[in-house]
Amino acid sequence: MLVYLRLLKESFAFALNALRSNILRTLLSLLGVTIGIFSIIAVLAAVDSLDRKISKDLSGLDKNTIYVLKFSFGPTDVPQWKREQFPNVKYDEYTYLKGAMTDTDELAYQAFVARESIKYDSRTVSDVNMVPSSHEFSDIGAFEFEKGRFYNESEGNSGAKVIVLGNEIAKSLFDDFEPIGKNVRVYGQRFTVIGVLKKQGAALFGDSDDTSAFIPVNFIRQLYGDSNTSLTNVIIFKPVKGVDMGAYKAEISQKLRAYRGLKAGDSDNFFINVFSGFTDLIDGIILNMKFGGWVISLFSLLVGGFGIANIMFVSVKERTNLIGIQKSLGAKNRFILFQFLFEAIILSVIGGMIGLLLVWVIALVLTNVLDFEFVLGMGNVLLGTLLAAIIGLISGILPAISASKLDPVEAIRTGM
């Protein structure tokens, strides 16, 4: 065991000597490994960071959440001309389904409207994402509050002029002053602030809750009416846990078809979108990104492997005399083999560590510059190091074998 530890120490010294004696040649040869490890780990770190952000953004939503509206979240066989004739879901359909559906934890109604400006005294925040919804929306979205609360059933049903602000909206309007109970102006009317959400951070899909404001949907119904074609409405279902999703979707379809008076031969004039389908689509995109990163990076690692092999063949040639002396003094073939293998692995790992260092620096810079946290996890660091070691092992095996098979007399004579 001590012999191999000493062998590893000597190999490390030879690797460092190779770096010192011809820095430019060695670094250029290691560049392929550095770029390959950088490419793979950078892609994996970016995808992992993206996956973590998506999971955080969507953590409050149940994967079984269902959205019923006139649009499909994904590809559909229904032709466009037919989709354009689909009617909006109506508030009375929401109230009917709320009483008719079984196995339902929460059921909410939301309208998509144009962005608005919110004013408080001399301050104005423009381009605010307005979210008119029924009171159940808070439970489905699992909102967390920094201050105050969401509007209750009575306020929601009456269309009360109350408003819940996203964190950035509240900070822009009130700074560090108390917002609860203050009146803001939106839609030309005064709304009382009853709640402020906790900071969420930038959202990857749609608008962040930080830049949104929530009001009772019945206020919008009173303002625009139920037949306004500029609004898009959605009914949101949160089924109880463990429900048979196929049977639950069939129940929604059957009851909404019956309410709309659709006949047996008529196709649905609405879409039932399950949130898990959206998350599965995102998972597929992330998997493809990882695969693409591996394919691109493997070419760099292949080039890096040739670079390591080149260094090791040169090293064998330069140390032929030394190899002959070692073998004449009793060094076995496997000792010479391991010596050069360890050296190749150490050189490759040095190239890999440079690549990992570059990923860490770039992740640190981007995290500070952007409102997005790039994370280089320990798992990716270990993976990068292992890959570099494997590349070194594969690249160094032929030079190491050639060195171990040298005849000691011929090696000494060649070195002289």
Automatic annotation (TrEMBL):
Q: How does it sit in the membrane?
A: Multi-pass membrane protein
User: Which keywords annotate this record?
Assistant: Cell membrane, Membrane, Transmembrane, Transmembrane helix
Q: Which residues form the ABC3 transporter permease C-terminal domain?
A: 295-408
Quote the InterPro entries the UniProt record gives. ABC3_permease_C, MacB_PCD, Macrolide_Exporter_MacB
Location(s) in or outside the cell: Cell membrane
* Superkingdom of origin: Bacteria
Residues passing through the membrane, by range? 27-47, 293-314, 335-362, 374-398
Where does it primarily localize?
membrane
Every copy of the MacB-like periplasmic core domain together lies at: 26-254
Report any Pfam family annotated for this entry.
FtsX
Alphabetized GO MF terms: transmembrane transporter activity
**Cellular component terms (Gene Ontology):** plasma membrane
Per the similarity annotation, which family is this? Answer: Belongs to the ABC-4 integral membrane protein family.
Q: What is this protein called?
A: Putative ABC transport system permease protein
